[in-house]
Amino acid sequence: MTDEPYDAKPDRATRADRKPARKVPRKATSRYLNNAARFYLERYATSVAGFRAYLLRKVDASAREHGTSPEEGREEIERLVELFTNMRALDDQRFAEQRAGSLHRKGKAKRAIAQDLKTKGISEPLIQKALESLQDGDEAIDPDFQAAVRYARKKGFGPFAALKIRSLRSAELETDEQETKKIRQRSLAAFARQGFSLSLAERILNSEDPHALEEEAGL
Hints:
Blueprint: H1 12-17, H2 30-43, H3 48-66, H4 70-86, H5 92-105, H6 110-119, H7 124-132, H8 143-155, H9 163-166, H10 170-173, H11 177-193, H12 198-206, H13 210-217
């Protein structure tokens, strides 16, 4: 009798069906929470509310898995919030201004930025300060107009459209009128998702000179 060759490798289907092992939450000791907090702050910009929520998830998971006290975990979290706030590692005003600036550079309107900061747990007074910081010292330039022009340029809307769209011959415009309307409606919808008003979106789309828009926006 000839022995069958032994294949040490598991069948591919068997490996694919095998469920990954469940990751067991760590026990939320004071030392662990402290290390987790430092690790998080070294890697991510966050608000006090975001920091607190991150650690609360660990405390709650530990309570379910290990039976640790949620109350003691929450007390430790508040101690860490106070510690890192005093160290300026947590600073809601700095976080709000930096995030507002980043979103503005990506083409978000002030209304959308305010809503984003609200979801991060930033207070209304700090949101207003963050929005005021977008003025960047030039009172003549509207931050929303600047962001809208930047967004249109990035997406190729209105006068920033691709050359093949802008250079349609007049004879082709009639047959392409329906598609042109669709493009305009999609552009208006995109502006709305960024938080811009209809009037501002139409102002950008109706412009014929991209360079004039950039100059007016200070870009």
